[in-house]
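Minutes, project huddle
Topic: does the predicted pose make sense with glycine bound?
PN asked that the exact inputs be recorded in the minutes so nobody has to dig through chat later. Recorded below.
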Amino acid sequence: MKLLVIGSGGREHAIAWCLARTRGLQKIYVAPGNAGTSAEHELENLPITDPQELADFADENKVRLTIVGPEAPLAAGIVDIFRARGLKIFGPTKAAAQLESSKEFAKRFMVKYRIPTAAFETFTDAAAAHAYVEKQGVPIVVKADGLAAGKGVVVAQTLKEAHAAIDDMLADNKLGDAGARIVIEEFLDGEEVSFIVMADGANVLPLASSQDHKRVGDGDTGPNTGGMGAYSPAPAVTPSIHAKIMREVINPAIKGMAQEGMPYVGFLYAGLMICKDGSIKTLEFNCRMGDPEAQPILMRLKTDFLKLLECAVEGKLDKAEAEWNLNAAVGVVLASAKYPGEPRTGNLIKGLPPANSFGDDAHLFHAGTAFNKAGKVVTSGGRVLCVTALGVNVRAAQKRAYELIETISFPGMQYRRDIGYRAINRKT
Ligand code: AMP
Ligand code: GLY
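Predicted holo structure (tokens), as shared on screen:
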């Protein structure tokens, strides 16, 4: 039996690694993959990114199921292409992926289906946007409408920052088409959590809760990134908060998408703010698993992942159950110099352990890694590696993850030293 995982990041490495535990699998192709996926026994990299060519490959090689990792191929309609050819694929259609690919679509959808979210206005005219922030004051949040790889959101603490963000996006076109329309919204104060579910169009299976660390620096300082580390479970998601999220956000979203005529099949990631007054507000929807949230979440999955995915594409998630390792998992991202700006790449990575040498309670997931001409592993992106470890609690998992990092290095390597701190500091 063959599977295909699309993407090249730490999330896709984790998805493929988790699937590789399934018995009876012959091969998991990762397209295009990274140096880490190419080094694992059951995985094989496939140097294809074009959706039509991927569909040809899946067809010719009798791939049983394709799983899409990142948002870009989903927004480009890869699911529609596969489905039109009768190929099994897990992910939302192009129309359903608008929940992530257009902030304006997502905001209007949330208003229509009464899903709690921050108050907002949409702008294409810079002068009107400038006038709006003058009236609203700061802090305020300026967001590009389209996909901007985690760089389209500016949480402005000063009017100067807010005006500069508007000019970057609307006047100077720094994010291209993605920033030709912007959403300006109310700043929300609270604790942010990632709530990811699998959906089959009608039924939902929630995955374990998690929390990401979006800012580049310790103590949540500096610019936003794609995520510098994550852990699971997130104690902020208490059983009552969990129930509230399902009731107020997830169930209305899945029902609403079906009512809109675009039933949602795929991972659905709600980025949520648990506000100080106990209310929950939806910051964003993503049409995929989080990266790096997927790494600690999948590290804890005890159920056969393929079975869950097959239930999801067959519309049988109501019959599926996921069992989680009761231990906590922490993933720490090792990033390149200058990330999240223009990261430096091509640096040799020293002290890389062989694949699977961390044992069952930890794993080194690769992201921006590639082989150079001499066959050595070098950095090839902003986020390079994600060391993920299990422990009896977040503190123990954190300790183990940081121990494993000690041998690994590359010039300019940066990482946060405090991944998991909110869970550790939390008073129970
Ligand atoms: P988004 O892509 O919309 O999730 O935004 C990226 C990050 O910006 C979020 O994960 C938050 O950390 C922050 N953010 C976005 N919207 C808000 C908001 N309304 N209030 C406070 N922080 C926000
Ligand atoms: N870690 C945040 C994201 O995947 O969007």
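Observations noted during the meeting:
- Residues 193 and 349 are 32 Å apart (CA to CA).
- The first strand starts at residue 2 and ends at 7.
No decisions taken; revisit at the next huddle.
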